[in-house]
Amino acid sequence: MKQNLLFPSYFRYIGWVLAVPGLVLGYFFEFENFTFKFLGDGRQSLFFGNGNYTDELAITLITIGLFLVCFSANKSEDERSQSIFRKALYRSVFVATVLTLFLFIVSLVPVAPKGLFILILYFFLYQPIIFVAFFNYFLYFKHNPLKDTPPLQHKYFHVLGLFILAVCVLIRIIYACINFVNEDFLVAVYYAAAVGLLLLVFSKERIENAIVNEHRSGAMQLAVYIASIIFLIATWVVYGIDYLSYMYFYPLYLLGIYAVIFQYKLYNDRKQTQDIIALT
Amino acid sequence: MKNNIRVERAIKNITQAELAGLIDVSRQTINTIESNKYVPSTILALKIARVFKKPVEEIFMLEEGD
């Protein structure tokens, strides 16, 4: 049985103790212009660089808190809860990414309320909460480990995803070379790339078996760890517009890291198989 | 797939919690296996069969459509 790397079960409570105040603080910072005076002078917007660290504090509390909540073990861990953990993590990333992309598209529509745009920044919030929902649903209701398949079953999703990604990379390269500057266009290209990556990552591989599934969940767990750490570091090191991109494109670099790790594991497997064949 | 775990437990006169303790899983897992909501791994099925001292095919049976 493959063991997930998890914190002891009491970390779940520590996680909520960090996350809930973080969420409250975040709400008051964002919507009520509240700041802690001892964390800096004056309220300065996240968008223009910061003299005040209330928002960094809120995001740090939320990120670490929810991370601990998601990655702490059950009181009694066994194969079923391990399998549910992997499945819930994988699906939560899918749903959270789809939600973020959907919000982005809706925010582009002219009649959308202005405040909607800000909701696409909160992937770091959606993914853990959706994970908790899925995990509890699978734990207390239904979970069939034999039906643990990628959400996009048709094989052409793989090809479509690769195509979209290739086109976006091409456009980005061309953009870098020509004398045309448009931030909105670039953001649209990145989100299109996220769609391509989503299709690529969550579709069937050519060969599907239990080992591929294990690699999938191992890669997803590692990718969520790495992406969370990157995001946390960026919260304190990067400011202004640059930091916004770490929030905007969280699903993009999360899925990117996942794709790299997953394909590397598959490559390793193929290499080992070839070595064995070469020896015999 | 169907199973005889409930019957075997009654014969051996142990509760779900006791069976769970013997094979190191949670009581909830035993409950979901008995009510056919969860298909255990091979290792877990073999452990359950060993507790009841029966071959695994007498505890777990394939059904039409499996």
Termini separation of chain B (Å)? 7 Å
Strand order of the largest sheet of chain B: 1-2
> Could you name the ranges of chain A where pLDDT drops below 50 across 5 or more consecutive residues?
none
- Percentage of residues in DSSP E strands of chain B: 5-15%
Features:
heterodimer, A: 280 residues, mainly alpha, B: 66 residues, 434 Repressor (Amino-terminal Domain), two-stranded antiparallel sheet, globular
Task: Compile the SSE list and pairings.
The complex is a heterodimer of chains A (280) and B (66).
Chain A: H1 11-32, H2 54-70, H3 79-108, H4 123-140, H5 156-177, H6 183-201, H7 210-237, H8 240-248, H9 250-279
Helix pairs in contact in A: 1-2, 2-4, 2-7, 3-4, 3-6, 3-7, 5-6, 6-9, 7-9
Chain B: E1 2-3, H1 5-12, H2 16-23, H3 27-34, H4 42-51, H5 56-59, E2 60-61
Antiparallel strand pairs in B: 1-2
What do you see in this structure?
The complex is a heterodimer of chains A (280) and B (66). With 280 residues, chain A is mostly helical. Chain A is built from nine helices and no strands. The longest helix of chain A has 30 residues. Chain A is globular and about 70 Å long. Chain B has a single domain, classed as lambda repressor-like DNA-binding domains (434 Repressor (Amino-terminal Domain)), CATH 1.10.260.40. Chain B is globular. Chain B is mainly alpha-helical and 66 residues long. The model of chain B has no long low-confidence stretch (mean pLDDT 93). In chain B, α2 crosses α3.
